[in-house]
Write a structure and sequence with these properties.
Elements: E1 2-6, E2 10-17, E3 30-36, H1 38-48, E4 53-59, H2 61-74, E5 77-82, E6 84-95, E7 100-110, H3 113-126, E8 132-135, H4 147-156, E9 163-168, E10 171-175, H5 182-189, E11 196-201, H6 210-219, E12 220-226, H7 230-238, E13 249-253, H8 256-266, E14 272-278, H9 288-300
């Protein structure tokens, strides 16, 4: 899931004109009503791409209720914080003849310190399930200019999601135990430019692994498969469909602790050991948090 954050939400009402002629009667060729606010715009695009997304936004008034209906219609999961004021309406005059666009803004939200605290609380609740966070758009009046930066710093500090555990002999160890699906593991793989030693495994949720395998063959030097679905992952990676020759070095270990030890043996200075399992924890642990703690303990015990 991708979380988007919009502090200055809006509804866009676009009037399609041949040409704007002030003082003269004009006929619009049509009207388009859509979600506004840059973070919510990103959610709309994500839904068109088939990606699950939550839109966290401040809203207010009747326009806010209309916006809620639009979000549900797009298939966006709304996480709306109601505040004083009115969600903006942006009247857009689009002239085809002059290829010109004009904007008229109506309304606005009044956001106080308590509202910002509610935003942070909602953000923290959604963080554990969010593969990515998009903060985008203008800020309402009186909102501190560093609000997005503060939220971004919180994203970097969440346990079990691309969490740097330690660096040892030039190798960095990252805990991404929250990656319980191939899609989330792929997001982690794309986060690094360094050569990767990947620890993958757990329990299969019967999801397709083809795209994951293709990306692993492109980006990973060594794959260490562990846990219940280790044989499945080894088989997928060695499937001839993904090419002949090349590809990563593959190892199979019964347990996470043995996988960490193998990673220590094979990792080279300048590389990243990435624990991004892609499967659930339930073959050996109560949840992804317990699994992440086990990885952290194993890494900190290395000498």
């Amino acid at each position: 899931m991708i979380l988007t954050i919009t502090l200055n939400s809006a509804i866009d009402r676009v009037l399609l004109l041949d040409e704007l002629t002030p003082g003269e009667p004009m006929r619009a060729r049509g009207e388009v009503i859509s979600v506004g606010g840059k973070g919510l715009d990103a959610s709309v695009v994500l839904r068109h791409l088939g990606v699950e997304t939550v839109g966290l936004a401040f809203v207010g008034g009747e326009t806010g209720r209309q916006l809620q209906g639009l979000l549900v219609g797009y298939g966006i999961i709304p996480e709306l914080l109601w505040v004083e004021g009115e969600t903006r309406t942006i009247y857009v005059l689009a002239e085809s003849r002059r290829k010109r666009v004009s904007h008229i803004r109506l309304g606005g939200l009044r956001i106080g310190d308590m509202d910002l605290q509610r935003l942070v609380q909602a953000y923290r609740r959604r963080l554990p399930e969010s593969a990515w966070v998009i903060c985008s758009g203008s800020l309402p009046e009186a909102v501190p200019v560093d609000t997005y930066a503060r939220l971004a710093r919180e994203f970097a500090g969440v346990e079990h999601r691309l969490e740097l555990v330690r660096s040892l002999r030039g190798v960095s160890y990252y805990n991404d135990s929250i990656a319980t699906s191939p899609e989330r593991a792929m997001a982690a793989l794309r986060s690094f430019d360094e050569p990767l030693v990947l620890l993958a495994g757990g329990r299969d949720k019967h999801l397709p692994w083809q795209d994951w395998a293709s990306l692993v063959r492109e980006r990973v030097r060594v794959v260490i498969c562990f846990g219940e679905m280790a044989p499945l992952l080894v088989g997928v990676l060695r499937d001839g469909h993904y090419g002949v020759g090349g590809g990563p070095e593959i190892h199979e270990c019964p347990s996470l602790e043995e996988a960490v030890e193998k990673a220590r043996e094979v990792a080279r200075p300048g590389e990243v050991v990435l624990f991004s399992p892609g499967g659930t924890s339930f073959d050996a642990y109560a949840d992804f948090g317990a699994r992440g703690q086990a990885f952290r303990k194993a890494v900190l015990s290395l000498d």
